[in-house]
Every structure is written in C-alpha cells, then in structure tokens.
Write a structure and sequence with these properties.
- With 266 residues, this protein is α/β, with parallel strands linked by helices.
- The protein folds into 2 domains: 122 residues, Rossmann fold (3-Layer(aba) Sandwich), CATH 3.40.50; 131 residues, Rossmann fold.
- The chain contains 11 helices and 10 strands.
- The protein has a 5-stranded parallel β-sheet with strand order 2-1-3-4-5, sandwiched between helices.
- The longest helix is centred in the C-terminal third of the chain and has 21 residues.
- It is elongated, with a radius of gyration of 20 Å.
- The protein starts with 7 loop residues before the first strand and ends with a helix.
C-alpha cells in the first residue's frame, strides 16, 4: 500500500465502468477521488473544489473542453489525459490543452505509476501492485517461443504468475483447478489445437470472457472473421515484437476488465 497525505484527484470520464474502476484503484492507493461523468460536472467541480490532479478522458472534453482546461493553466493541478490515440508525453495535444501527460487506455498501470511519482511514491511499487497476483497461462508447443513470451510477461506484468501448457488439452487441465486471468495461445499445436481450445472456452459461461491473445503465423481471413465474434480475443501474427505483444495484452486486459460488468457479469 502506498502511503500518502490527503490528495484529491478528479476523475472525469463518460465511460461509467472505466471511471469507477480507475477511481477504486486510486482509492486503494489512498487517494481521495471525485468523479465527473460529463463536461458540465467537471467544470462545476473545478470551480468549487481544490484538486491536486485531474485525470480526464479526451473524448469527454468535446465541445468546450478546451475552454474548461485553459481556465486551469498556470494555477490549477496537472492534467493527465486518457485517450484511444497513440500515447505520448503531451505530444500534439500539448498545444491544444495544458496537459502534463497523455496515456492510452491500455496504459493504466503506467499512468498510476506516474501519478505515484507525482506524489512522491515509488513507481515500481505501484506497477507491481497493479499486476500482483495476475495468473497468466501460456499455451505453446515450442520451448523457445514459450521462453520468449515468459520473459515478456515477467517484464511487463511484474508480480504475476506465469504457467505453461504445450497444447489445449493440457491448458484445460490447468484451468480446471487453478485460476487463470490471461491466456496467450498458439493456434497450431499437437493434440488439441488453439482453435478447438477457443471453441471449448467460449462454450463455457464462466470462461468465455477470459482475455486471450492468439499468436499464429497462419491466420486465414475466415478465421480472423470468426475470432472477431469474441470480444476478449485479440490476434497477432508470428513473429511479433515484444512491444506489440505487451501493448496488445495491456489493451486486452483493459477491455476484459470492463466487459463482464457491462454484460451483467459471470
């Protein structure tokens, strides 16, 4: 747990689920939060309360958002923007809004670490807290590729536990008595292949929303279309870079975290 003095953060996001998830996570780090679901609420809170930091969704700002943020320039708290665009340190948005940093929605852990650094906390402690206890299952028949993926998981998901399976049948056995939060699987494997594994997974009402990254060197257009029906499945071609895999997994986890709540839970 990160110990801080009383700090209040305004979380402004029209996405109710995403906003509440972030607010709860900030509260677990002992920050106080105030939530705004639209521009009018954001403007009202900024006029009536003092905040040490503002986290706002770029889409929420919309018409008139620039005026709201410009009022803060020079005398108000730092602003972190959340966006679906390519993230950067302000980037081309810095000239439009008086922002401190911009984060993609998939970069929640990095944003929390940056918030912690702003308030004098250790970034490593927050990053590990974000993924500590995460259970990851790698399904791949190649020892070399499993080793490569394991190194990525260990580096980008600190504090997680990584288990391995050589095919879908072994993976189902692993999942029968152990919790799994994230799955990375190949398609072409001996025994039960990845495609069969996914079909079995998505027939199960408890398991069908598990986030899955499918890696393969032979995607057909038909298969890609079929996989689009699964909201928590992403695909990457082999070979893919460490950065591509890490960014895709973080984006996938962010989507998977909100989806069960939006569809009524499992």
């Amino acid at each position: 747990m990160v110990k801080t003095e009383k700090k209040t953060i305004l979380v402004a996001d029209a996405n109710n689920t995403a906003r509440k998830i972030l607010a709860v996570r900030l509260q677990s780090l002992e920050y106080e939060t105030v939530e705004a679901e639209n521009l009018e609420e954001m403007d009202r809170f900024l006029k009536s309360q003092i905040f040490q930091l503002v986290v706002a969704d770029l889409k929420l700002l919309g018409q008139g958002g620039e005026e709201v943020l410009q009022k803060m320039k020079g005398k108000k708290p730092p602003i972190f923007l959340i966006t679906d665009r390519v993230p950067g340190e302000g980037g081309d948005l810095a000239g439009t809004y008086p922002v401190t940093a911009v984060f993609h929605r998939s970069q929640r852990a990095e944003m929390l670490a940056r918030i912690g650094e702003h308030f004098g906390a250790a970034a490593e402690q927050i990053l590990e807290g974000e993924t500590k206890g995460l259970q990851i299952l790698l399904i791949e028949d190649s020892n070399t590729i499993r080793g490569f993926l394991r190194r990525i998981m260990t580096k980008h998901f600190p504090g997680s536990t990584v288990r391995e399976a050589e095919d879908g049948r072994q993976a189902m056995s692993e999942m029968s008595n152990k919790r799994v939060d994230l799955i990375v699987t190949d398609l072409q494997m001996p025994g039960m292949d990845g495609q069969t594994f996914l079909k079995i997974l998505h027939r199960n009402p408890v398991l069908k929303y598990k986030p899955v990254l499918v890696l393969s060197g032979s995607f057909t257009s038909q298969l890609k279309e079929e996989l689009k029906a699964y909201p928590t499945v992403r695909t990457l071609a082999k070979p893919s870079s460490e950065e591509e895999i890490a960014v895709t997994l973080k984006d996938l986890m962010a989507v998977a975290e909100t989806l069960p709540r939006l569809v009524g839970g499992e």
